[in-house]
Amino acid sequence: MRGHYEQLFYLAVALPFLASMVASPAQRYLKQYSSFILALFPIAAFTLIFSVSAQIQAHEAIVFGFNWVPSLDVAFSFRLDGLSYVFALLILGIGALIILYSGGYMYKSDKIGRFYAFLFLFMGAMLGLVLADDLMTLFIFWELTSITSFMLIGFQHERELARRGAIQALVITGMGALALLAGFIMIRQSTGFTTLSQLIAQPEAIIEGGLYVPILLCVLLGAFTKSAQMPFHVWLPNAMEAPTPVSAYLHSATMVKAGIYLLMRLFPALGDTVLWEALLVPFGSVTLVIGALLALRQSDVKLILAYTTVGSLGLLVLLIGIGTDIALEAAVLYVVAHSLAKACLFMVAGSVDHGAGTRDIRALGGLARTMPFTFAAALLGAAAIGGLPPLFGFLAKEEIYAAAVGAGSAPYMAAMILITLVGNTLMFATVLIVALKPFIGQLPSGLRRAHETSLMVWLPALVLGAVGLAAGVFPFLIHQYISNPMASVTLNKTIELTVALGFHIGAPLGLSIVTVLAGIMIFRKSKESRARVAGWLTAIGWGPDRGFDQFMRGLIIFSAGLTNFLQPGRLDYYMRTTFLVIIGVLWVTMIATGGLPSLPEWPMLYFYEWMLLFILVLGVVVVAIAPNRLTAMLSLGIQGLAVALLFLLLGAPDLSFTQFMVEILSVAILALVMTRLRLQPADRRPWREVTPEFALAALGGIGLALFLITVTQTELNTDLSDFYVKYAYVIAHGRNIVNVILVDFRAVDTMGEIAVVLTTGAAILALVRIRVSKKDRHGVKKKKRAASEVQS
């Protein structure tokens, strides 16, 4: 049975990637029917995941995978439990509707096949992220979501704003990903654990490992950048330059939830501490309130929804930061309600844009008569975000206020109530603007031709709105399949949610009523409120978005300066830099680690060994005092020949013969090159310029000699030598071990070395053969003559 499950889950993970491979051909041959065929891929994966709902309801975890890089203890492993199960269903279910929506929204685009391919790649990356068990596997899928979202945000790359939004998203989330990788590495080092399953089984391991604070900071930086917490939120609104299906999928229901998923997943291991609460609660609170205020300022429907998404993500971080059971239960309910409702509203924004030709709230009105189905979907989505009964969002909002009321001490509780009340009120007012402003009132004269869009555009939005309504009407069914398993894994204990429709007298209901009344008042004064908020922001005059541009500009200037400093185009500079690095590595390492060797005793040498030593010293002296470069080059060959003789005396004739050939060919080739290049025959520089290079040579030579002495004084491990001796003839059928190593055991390495030599030879040949043709020289002379005549 376990093998059967593994095959099903591998297929579920692979299906989006398979769909990306066939997306473009399907669009080419099936045209308008391609979206229906392609939607079957996520539907099939959804069915495979949902088929184990009984095990998930029983709080069982299904772990599967295989060793990927055994030497690094990295496995390509996955874990399906209540948390990953719910996120996977959201990714695949909403993803299938997005594919259908894209077919209606982008049917005129000649690039829709490529768009499908990118969208499926993202879907697969996001599915792999939430299912991953191994930490390195999770990181790889985490990065893949950033790369694929970059391609989707910049899909309309001919537009500058789309390119900027894509780069901004990639830079910010990529920076967070590097921090997350550092956190995962520290988890592996401090606990020895490589999988989430191990962390879930022993959640206290990170705190006991001694690296809790740096691990927490790195993980939070990764989660905050991905889930658009202040001040990293700027990439999300700018990503609205992507096509609307991208906004509906990536930036409401899936990608921005990746950070929330990570915080929920690691809550048992990192949460419920003073530092956790001290960091998450302030960041979440600021993001909630500022995001909602920024949403109120906007006039573009997509931007309004984008900033309310920022506020909603801040609310989720705030709840996870509070960390009580009821706060985590509220976060679970809100994740589901928000994903359904916000994807619905983004689809509505696209439908309005298609049907009316604009998304500007100020130019819209009266569309309810011409776009009734879109209006119905807008009402359902706004009611869910605003927390109106009988939508599922109402249950989530009740739990949010219950969590705020039970947050702790009286001052803390008052602060949480005020923050959640202000944030929810502002978001309710903004979604009312989205749901009512375009549809009520008189139809402007410029929108006389406004019409309901195609079935494939408004139906997916209406379906998501209807699902949110059904979830609120039948909450216990949703709790059984969704809420209870997800909350149980998040809190690492069995949870049974009982929240349902009904007006339970108490503080949460009173706060809900206040939210609705205050939101309606702000909605009625939306024009004045928008102008007031815009005035405040204009007075501030600076923000993270402008700061990002300044950061990128400074980074480019710094990079250009560093490149010009490190790559000035001078070979002598490169040589000095290379030798400085080598000398630094040799000396600093030996001194810092106390690795300076003890000087060996002077050996008793035979007369021919004294002669060899004399030849070596003589070659060095001749190189130093050579009157010209050609003599120095020939003298340098003496060193190589002496080393070859040394190999011969020590019983390595093959190696000695190879060294002889290398030295003879090197000297011959260099001498020929010298005759073809216009170089000064001798080095005429003064001593003040030569002395630093002499010092570098001396330090490098002495450092390398000390390093080699250190190597000879360490204990020799003969395992590799014994392996070659044992298997040279058995495996490679050769008795010359050196030849066998070069030709068989290290054949690829040898081939690479040969390729390097050939490439170098070709480059030298190209340099030597560069000649200025007679015609070119004649032209240069004519130009010089003309210039002199002009001057005269």
Automatic annotation (TrEMBL):
GO terms for molecular function: antiporter activity. It is found in: Cell membrane; Membrane. It is a multi-pass membrane protein. Residues 69-116 form the NADH-Ubiquinone oxidoreductase (complex I) chain 5 N-terminal domain. One of its GO terms (biological process) is monoatomic ion transport. Keywords: Antiport, Cell membrane, Ion transport, Membrane, Transmembrane, Transmembrane helix, Transport. Its main location: membrane. The chain crosses the membrane at residues 33-54, 84-103, 115-132, 138-155, 167-186, 206-225, 246-267, 273-296, 303-324, 330-352, 373-392, 412-436, 457-478, 498-523, 579-599, 605-626, 633-651, 657-674, 694-712, 754-772. The keyword Transport applies. Residues 615-678 form the MrpA C-terminal/MbhD domain. Residues 132-415 form the NADH:quinone oxidoreductase/Mrp antiporter transmembrane domain. NCBIfam families: PRK12647.1 (NF009287). This is Putative monovalent cation/H+ antiporter subunit A. It comes from Aureimonas fodinaquatilis.
